[in-house]
Amino acid sequence: MDFSELLRRRTVRRFAQEPLKKEEVRAILEAARLASCAANLQRLRYIAVMEPSLVAAILPHTAFGMMVHPKRQPVAGVTSPTAFIAVCSTCDPNESLHADAGAAIQSMEFAAWNLGIGATWLGSHKQAEIAALLDVEKPGRILYMVALGRPGETPCREDVDADASVKYYLDADDCIHVPKYTVDAITTWK
Ligand SMILES: Cc1cc2nc3c(=O)[nH]c(=O)nc-3n(C[C@H](O)[C@H](O)[C@H](O)COP(=O)(O)O)c2cc1C
Questions:
Q1: CA distance 135 to 124
Q2: Kind of pairing between the strands at 156-160 and 176-181
Q3: Domains in the chain and their CATH numbers?
Q4: Which has the closest alpha carbon to 86: 39, 64, 54?
Q5: Angle at the Cα of 92 (from 101 to 50), degrees rounded to 5?
Q6: How close is the Cα of 121 to the center of ligand 1, in Å?
Q7: Smallest CA separation from ligand 1 atom 28, residue
Q8: What are the pLDDT digits (tens) for 41-54?
Q9: Nearest protein Cα to ligand 1, atom 18
């Protein structure tokens, strides 16, 4: 896939129920481990969850697409993700660790897209409940969850000017539209 195709990546919140292969998830994790990180400290750890009952147990502790109505929460066994990756810290999280997680997750999103796999970066999740399900013990902590699965929807991008709304929305055909500011709207050249 060339880079312009990769940039067409959009968050996917509805999934087909065909399971992912372990080597696909491993390829996504490969992108995470090679991402930039502060001082090359590599303080993130990952829990790859593919076991269907555990994936199902995690789902109610996540929140998808809270900005749209009706919300885009996947329906268990119908549009649910078929895997999760928990992005965990090995120490008390600080700003640079969240930046590391951002770099790693964006890399995973692109790696997934390259394989035809959809992903949702989940900041909204019940940390304690999922940590208990995954046996994450302090000082370790789940920073973010990433939901994965074969895409069951095709969101589309809209390029908008600086005065436009950037709220993503559902159209009458149940398709998510994602407004993105143009370069000119967000850049000052000096
Ligand atoms: C830090 C962060 C937290 C996010 N948390 C959630 C979340 O909890 N639920 C969700 O559905 N999407 C979540 N997203 C995905 C964003 O909603 C999505 O990236 C945004 O709407 C732009 O869409 P795009 O990824 O298709 O460009 C999160 C993204 C980021 C970077």
A1: 19
A2: parallel
A3: 3-152 (3.40.109.10), 155-190 (2.20.180)
A4: 54
A5: 50
A6: 5
A7: 121
A8: 999 999 999 999 99
A9: 11
On the question of pLDDT at 91 being above 90, the answer is: no
Is the CB of residue 82 less than 8 Å from the CB of residue 17? yes
For ligand 1, atom 14, the nearest C-alpha belongs to 121
Helix (H) or strand (E) holding 107: helix 95-114
Check residue 153 and report its DSSP letter.
Answer: -
Which residues, in sequence order, are CB contacts of 21 under 8 Å at separation 6+? none
Mean pLDDT of 155-176: 95
pLDDT tens profile 101-130: 999 999 999 999 999 999 999 999 999 999
User: Residue 139 above 90 pLDDT?
Assistant: no
Nearest CA to ligand 1 atom 31: 121
Instruction: List Cα–Cα distances, 70 to 35, 66, 179, in angstroms.
Output: 35, 9, 18
- What pLDDT shows up at residue 54? 98
Mutate to test the pocket of ligand 1, among 7, 9, 11, 80 (most ligand atoms within 8 A of CB): 11
